[in-house]
Design brief:
Blueprint: H1 2-6, H2 9-16, H3 23-34, H4 48-66, H5 81-87, H6 118-125, H7 174-180, H8 186-193, H9 203-210, E1 214-215, E2 218-222, H10 237-254, E3 271-273, E4 284-286, H11 306-309, H12 323-329
Antiparallel strand pairs: 1-2, 3-4
């Protein structure tokens, strides 16, 4: 990951091939997805798992391009106390509590936040975008006093990624993972894993909760890992979100009758209105918008193609993937995915 952080796009592509990506590439792509003026293309709606599955695969391709001996991106089961303790230590992803200005400990010490302004965005990020029509997507605050690539409302003002202490005392609970496997429909699975009535007590919410929380003395200040649009700044973002995709694939094994129905992915899709994070909030279901339906392109402003994913799924290798493509071609149940998730009981799985 340090190679991704410290190598330019041009140098990385020349040395490691077309699968190489910079660390900032994934932050920019996630930010465009989140800040899309049509509505969030990867959160608070039905494309949540389809979008993140594609992003994790593109990230994995990059990691393996740099070091082919790495077989897969690891996942962190963040409902397991031992797994959390193992992941959040200096020799892995840094201590769970790593407040600024010192920031992350160990291997990711001095993991810097990139600077951002209009010129940087237009020269280093915008060329990767697929759409020329959605030109209002500029997911940064050009007036921020810090000059860092953060959400406009985040007052975090430190040059390195840090994680604030947990003020709630909430502990991980394996039931959160298992309960979602009993969801009867895909919509119910989304509610269980992604939407919440009490922020940390859900799989997705707790993942971001682990990445840093807020400054208790000034709640306008969020750790980069809780700053949703740019949360891939935290190096443990991908392993935590891989565990969410893993839950989806296990959920499908419990509901094989949904295979012929696109695993329950509604043709029209689902969407909600996200409100500022607060304990006890409930999201309001709204009419679907472009991007959430089954046959819509996944985050068309900055999408995913066969060429990017290194998968031969379309006649045109530059065609952008739809939600239906993900459901059909990244399905570990039917074996169409080029990967599967290893379990502790499966010592031979990649």
């Amino acid at each position: 990951m340090w190679i991704m952080k410290n190598t330019s796009w041009e140098a990385g592509q020349a040395r490691y091939g077309t699968g190489f990506r910079t660390a900032g590439y994934f932050v920019g792509k996630h930010a465009v997805t989140t800040k899309d003026p049509r509505g969030d293309q990867g959160h608070f709606g039905s494309p949540f798992v389809t979008y993140h599955a594609l992003m994790i695969l593109e990230f994995e391709n990059c990691i393996r391009a740099i070091d082919p001996s790495i077989e897969a991106v690891p996942y962190v089961d963040h409902t397991d106390t031992d797994a959390i303790a193992d992941a959040f230590r200096p020799e892995r992803f840094g201590n769970l509590v790593s407040p600024p200005p010192v920031g992350l400990t160990g291997r990711f010490h001095d993991w810097e936040l990139p600077r951002m302004n209009v010129s940087i965005w237009e020269s280093e990020y915008e060329p990767f975008m697929n759409s020329t029509e959605i030109d209002s997507v500029k997911p940064y605050n050009p007036n921020t006093t810090s000059g860092l690539f953060l959400d406009a409302e985040n007052h975090y003002n430190h040059s390195v990624v840090g994680r604030y202490p947990d003020p709630t005392g909430i502990k991980p609970n394996p039931r959160w993972f298992d309960d979602c496997l009993t969801a009867e429909t895909y919509y119910d699975w989304l509610i269980c894993t992604h939407w919440w009535t009490y922020f940390p007590k859900r799989l997705h919410g707790y993942a971001h909760h682990l990445m840093g929380g807020r400054n208790v003395e000034d709640t306008r200040i969020s750790a980069p890992g809780l700053d949703v649009s740019v949360s891939p700044h935290d190096p443990i973002f991908m392993p935590l979100h891989a565990n969410l995709e893993r839950n989806w694939h296990i959920w499908k094994t419990k509901h094989p009758h949904l295979l012929s129905k696109y695993w329950g992915f509604n043709v029209q899709g689902y969407a909600t209105i996200p409100t500022p994070f607060s304990f006890g909030q409930v999201y309001e279901v709204i009419d679907p918008y472009e991007g959430v339906a089954l046959n819509d392109v996944v985050t068309s402003a900055w999408g995913f193609s066969d060429r990017q994913l290194q998968i031969d799924a379309h006649d045109d290798e530059d065609a952008l993937w739809t939600n239906a493509d993900v459901v059909c071609h990244l399905d570990t149940y039917s074996g169409t995915a080029p990967y599967r998730y290893a379990e502790r009981s499966d010592e031979t799985a990649p």
